[in-house]
Amino acid sequence: MESIKIIRDKMELEGTCYIELSLGKYQGKHWCPTSLFFEEETFGLIEPIFEIAISDYDHYGMNNADKDEWNKALIELKELASLLESANEFSDVMNKLFFIFSGTRDYFQNHFEYCKIHLFNVISELIEWAETNIQKHGYIAILGI
Known about the structure:
48% helix
């Protein structure tokens, strides 16, 4: 696991294995300057929230999530942020996160304080961005791998 962060600058992207959050409904365009990008491993930590909140969510597809679906996801993201903030050890959060790769779980556990702080920051930044933009655009598309 390289880092737990949101990528806003497309120049930081290497290859195409990213999850992109794009404003509005998917219009056939990728790599928009207003999008947020996540390494697959980072987004995977919170992806089950979206799998539950968004009907027919597909990790590999184009998911147009409306305001109601995002509001469901935001509730869960806020709960996870609160849990991370109060967690003292990995076991406090391990059942609330998803690890796409086995090495990710080990890294998160072995570097718990670092990972929990960075994931908390990612979730907080995502919540703020989504709450602002879902009101303006009505949809935020999640473009899969």
